[in-house]
């Protein structure tokens, strides 16, 4: 595993880092791709977001609404799993 060192830079009101092309290429990430960022304990993970083909007739915001309602009713859904 190769390690890279980068400096956090200010970008507008946010902060960012640059990533080496070699690293992105190895991860299958290209310019313009969307990525998911997850923090677990004291580590940050970045991975390419999987493109999802939305079935015909399904509203583009379906998954946002589904996630919102799943979180809202998380306890109830967990109770259903335990039945």
Key attributes of the depicted protein:
3 helices, two-stranded antiparallel ribbon, two-stranded antiparallel sheet, 83 residues, single chain, alpha+beta
Describe this structure in words.
The protein is of the alpha+beta class and 83 residues long. It is 31% helix and 22% strand. The protein contains three helices and four strands, in the order ββαββαα. The chain has helices at 21-27, 62-72, 74-81; strands at 9-11, 14-16, 35-40, 43-48. Strands 1-2 form a two-stranded antiparallel ribbon. A two-stranded antiparallel sheet has the order 3-4. It is extended, with a radius of gyration of 18 Å. It starts with 8 loop residues before the first strand and ends with a helix. The model has no long low-confidence stretch (mean pLDDT 88).
Number of strands: 4
- What is the terminal separation in angstroms? 45 Å
What low-confidence regions span 5 or more consecutive residues with pLDDT below 50? none
Bin the helical content: 25-40%
Overall mean pLDDT stands at 88
